[in-house]
Design a protein that fits this description.
Distance between the termini: 85 Å
Oligomer: single chain
């Protein structure tokens, strides 16, 4: 692009990188303003004709104001291969406890660990955790295994494997606690689905918060969260024994957690050692809850 006026060209900007100068030149070109670039000792200079200078200044100032207001680009999502191992551990834990339920150990594991609202309200808070590891039958178990593998692997790509599963268990725990306080004392439930709908909520909330979109408002900004709600409706409201309240509670808490992680998650340590500590904390939380359950029973 060449400056063609007869008067002395006016210097608009000087940048250190040619790429930056070319970007400013494209802004002026889009506005129909001819300009020129020239390398000098101070960097790359951007010139325009004197007659075009006032409008060119206005165009660049408007562009720079809009650039300052634009949301920062979200960091690229990197696949965390440790998520596969964590998902396998999740499956092994569910299979282990299902095996205990199927054998006659003179212990009713479902009664020992179910999320019974009255007992939780009475202080047996560990049931909000132990209930996540128990299942009614093979179909119940297989459904939660499949959903856990999908949601767990997806969330591991966003948060890292250890933090993902710690967040899943915590949202499931809080979801069971909230459900227990909203239900009648005789209400009881088991299954990992509260935690898995919590995982769905985390994914939806996280993507809603971190997604970079070319518009500044409107309903389309809520597309990730809306998609999560649709999945909740489709997957979480069917079946006679479906605990709808727990599913909704898990998703709601997961959604709020996802929004918070999307906004402030970059302050949380994300290294390999940190992910291992998160994973160990998750296993420790499950083991500690069951230890409390057994100690209280015997």
């Amino acid at each position: 692009m060449l400056v063609s006026g007869t008067e002395e060209p006016v210097l608009l900007r000087r940048t250190q990188r040619r790429r930056d100068a070319e970007q400013l030149a494209l802004v002026l070109a889009a506005a129909g303003i001819a300009c020129g670039l020239a390398a000098d000792s101070g960097g790359i200079a951007l010139y325009v004709d004197a007659a075009d200078a006032p409008r060119a200044f206005d165009e660049l100032e408007a562009y720079e104001r809009e650039s300052a207001l634009a949301p920062p680009a979200a960091p690229a999502i990197v696949i965390d291969h440790g998520g596969v191992g964590a998902a396998i551990v999740f499956g092994a834990i569910l299979l282990f406890f299902f095996g205990l339920q199927q054998r006659d150990w003179r212990t009713d594991w479902s009664a020992l660990g179910a999320a019974e609202a009255g007992l939780i309200q009475g202080g047996q808070w560990w049931r909000t955790i132990t209930a996540l590891t128990l299942h009614v039958d093979h179909a119940h178990l297989l459904g939660n295994l499949a959903a856990g593998l999908v949601f767990g692997l997806l969330l591991a790509q966003l948060l890292g494997a250890g933090l993902a599963w710690l967040a899943i268990v915590l949202t499931g725990t809080l979801g069971n606690a909230l459900s227990a306080w909203l239900q009648t004392p005789v209400h009881a439930a088991i299954g990992a689905s509260t935690a898995l709908f919590g995982a769905l909520g985390i994914v939806a909330g996280f993507l809603r918060q971190r997604r970079v979109v070319p518009w500044r408002g409107g309903i389309r900004r809520w597309a990730p969260l809306s998609a999560g709600i649709l999945l909740l409706v489709f997957l979480g409201f069917g079946g006679e024994r479906t605990d709808v309240g727990a599913h909704v509670a898990g998703f709601a808490i997961g959604g709020m957690s996802g929004l918070a992680l999307g906004r402030w998650g970059h302050h949380i340590p994300q290294g390999r050692r940190a992910q291992w500590l998160y994973g160990l904390a998750t296993v420790g939380l499950l083991a500690g809850a069951w230890l409390l359950a057994l100690t209280h029973a015997y």
